[in-house]
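SEQUENCE-TO-STRUCTURE ENTRY
===========================
Question of interest: how does this chain fold, as expressed in backbone structure tokens?
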Amino acid sequence: MGAAGGNPDDATGWNRTLTSALRTAQDPRLIYSLGDQVNSANDQGQYEEYLAPEATTTVPQATTIGNHDVASKSYEQHFNRPNVSQDHGEGGAITSGGDYWFIDSGVLFINIYSNSHDTEIHRRSRQGPRR
């Protein structure tokens, strides 16, 4: 959501941005968020504000974990990530993480856990979908 000077400002800005984007997109298949859904990983109020707009309950989301989302299990508890890599970034006892992938309408989406800079591990985990 960001750090616009306080949670009410962030929540209002997020709602306005999402509403405008969805009006422009006209019936989107999904919302693709590129990280930092919250500013503080342990702040459940910020997750509530992120998820408050009606569109977050009616349009599927694919989220990328940002550096502000990592420091607790909250990210994993709020967002379903299919096919999380067993080789890399599953998170820890008190952290969230992980590369993951999914296919929607014949398009392969690969979501890289960019908080890890270990390119060798990402390379191995991107071998992903096995048929």
Summary: Residues 15 and 53 are 6 Å apart (CA to CA). The mean pLDDT is 83. The longest helix spans residues 7-25.
